[in-house]
């Protein structure tokens, strides 16, 4: 059985805020009509301006038919978005024609092929106005840090540790990856994950059983398009319980509200806010948000989702994250409030600096005073 989630921003109302009901319905209708015979089940939702299609099927990962289905649904959605005059219609569909796999074409993909357990609980995360490195810290804490995950000392199989597959997303020529094991290579993992704009957790695997626990969408849109086309807004699938961390151990790190790259014009450091399913975007084209739908899947059939960040506990977190966001915004454009030059998603500043460069002068040194 394969879990696939494919997501794209294909247009939204009132700026980069949220898709229209008509757009969502168009994507739902398209998938609904073509699902019989191809999909076992599906669930369509939005987080900010992104629409995600979660699918269960038996065709494995990177399957052409599955990718084509999602691509065609997003194309149909783009037509609907254009009819309504939505902003950024078709924004993430960077290529004109489908060529076998949506990877490298704009949409984000996270997939894993699994042997379904008797009960198969898993979590589907979707984040908007940020990039794939946003999951680095929560995954490190959940799978490697006993301060967060007591399962690492209480459960024998979890104690055997996990294999992290980490990708260097700056390497545009191909997938540059490294495999590192916990607990013995924890510091090496930390050394890479401290730079979430470059090194991104792509997957996590149980060392006790070899089973895959996590799949993260790692695409970087600006690497594909060569220019700013919106942030990458990553989706992620995480299997939970038994040989994997418990749901609560996976969710706990989101209480930090850690700073991630994104927010306004994809160019700032803003804290990540855990939100309800189907939440839009607001303050400072952000703050970056993450939603989490919990499911059980049985013979490929999905239960209804449980909204993991809807619990009252997260209201306090949201209030604190809002305060953190306003606090760093007081610093405006200076220093850490904005991402480093290389990560800025708009090229305007580079052009401005190139012009100013020519106006710099080096003062001539004053002649030394003659000794009397
Ligand atoms: C889009 C985003 C926004 C836009 C901003 C300007 O995902 O993060 O902050 O970058 O609203 O949008 P444009 O350049 O489309 O006018
Ligand atoms: Mg958008
Ligand atoms: Mg988005």
Give an account of the 3D structure.
- The structure is a single chain.
- With 372 residues, the chain is α+β, with helices and mostly antiparallel strands.
- It has 2 domains: 1-111, 2-Layer Sandwich (Alpha-Beta Plaits); 114-361, no CATH class.
- It contains 10 helices and 16 strands.
- The protein has helices spanning 21-34, 64-84, 136-144, 151-154, 156-159, 186-193, 221-225, 247-251, 313-329, 348-359, and strands spanning 2-8, 41-47, 50-57, 108-113, 120-128, 162-168, 177-181, 199-206, 212-216, 235-239, 259-262, 268-271, 273-274, 289-298, 301-302, 306-307.
- Strands 5, 6, 7, 8, 9, 10, 13, 14, 15 and 16 form a 10-stranded mixed beta sheet that branches. Strands 2-3-1-4 form a 4-stranded antiparallel beta sheet, covered by helices on one side. Strands 11-12 form a two-stranded antiparallel sheet.
- Helix 1 (21-34) packs antiparallel against helix 2 (64-84).
- It starts with a strand and ends in a 13-residue tail after the last helix.
- One magnesium ion binds next to loops.
Quick take:
This protein is of the alpha+beta class and 372 residues long. 27% of the residues lie in helices and 24% in strands. It has 10 helices and 16 strands.
């Amino acid at each position: 059985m394969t879990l696939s989630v494919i997501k794209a921003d294909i247009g939204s109302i009132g700026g980069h805020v949220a898709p229209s009901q008509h757009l969502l319905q168009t994507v739902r209708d398209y998938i609904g009509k073509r699902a019989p015979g191809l999909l076992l089940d599906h669930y369509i939702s939005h987080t900010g301006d992104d629409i995600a299609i979660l699918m269960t099927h038996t065709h494995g990962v990177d399957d052409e038919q599955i990718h084509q289905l999602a691509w065609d649904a997003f194309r149909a959605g783009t037509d609907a978005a254009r009819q309504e005059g939505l902003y950024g219609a078709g924004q993430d569909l960077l290529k004109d024609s489908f060529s076998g796999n949506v990877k490298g074409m704009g949409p984000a993909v996270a997939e894993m092929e699994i042997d379904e357990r008797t009960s198969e609980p898993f979590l589907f995360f979707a984040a908007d106005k940020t990039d794939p490195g946003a999951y680095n810290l929560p995954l490190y804490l959940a799978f490697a840090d006993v301060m967060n995950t007591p399962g690492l000392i209480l459960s024998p199989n979890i104690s055997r540790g996990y294999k992290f597959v980490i990708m260097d997303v700056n390497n545009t020529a191909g997938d540059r990856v490294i495999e590192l094991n916990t607990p013995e290579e924890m510091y090496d993992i930390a050394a890479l994950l401290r730079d979430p704009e470059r090194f991104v957790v792509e997957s996590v695997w149980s060392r006790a059983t070899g089973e895959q626990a996590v799949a993260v969408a790692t695409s970087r849109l600006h690497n594909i398009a060569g220019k700013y086309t919106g942030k990458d807004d990553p989706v992620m699938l995480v299997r939970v319980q038994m040989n994997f961390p418990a749901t609560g151990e996976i969710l706990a790190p989101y209480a930090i509200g850690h700073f991630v790259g994104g927010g306004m014009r994809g160019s700032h450091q803003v804290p990540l806010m855990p939100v309800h399913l189907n939440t839009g975007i607001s303050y400072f084209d952000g703050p970056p948000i993450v939603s989490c739908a919990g499911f059980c899947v049985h013979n490929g059939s999905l239960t209804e989702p449980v909204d993991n960040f809807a619990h009252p506990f997260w209201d306090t977190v949201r209030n604190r994250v809002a305060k953190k966001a306003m606090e760093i915004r007081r610093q405006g454009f200076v220093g850490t409030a904005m991402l480093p030059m290389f990560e800025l998603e708009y090229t305007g500043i580079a052009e401005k600096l190139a012009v100013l460069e020519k106006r710099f002068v080096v003062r001539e040194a004053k002649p030394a005073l003659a000794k009397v």
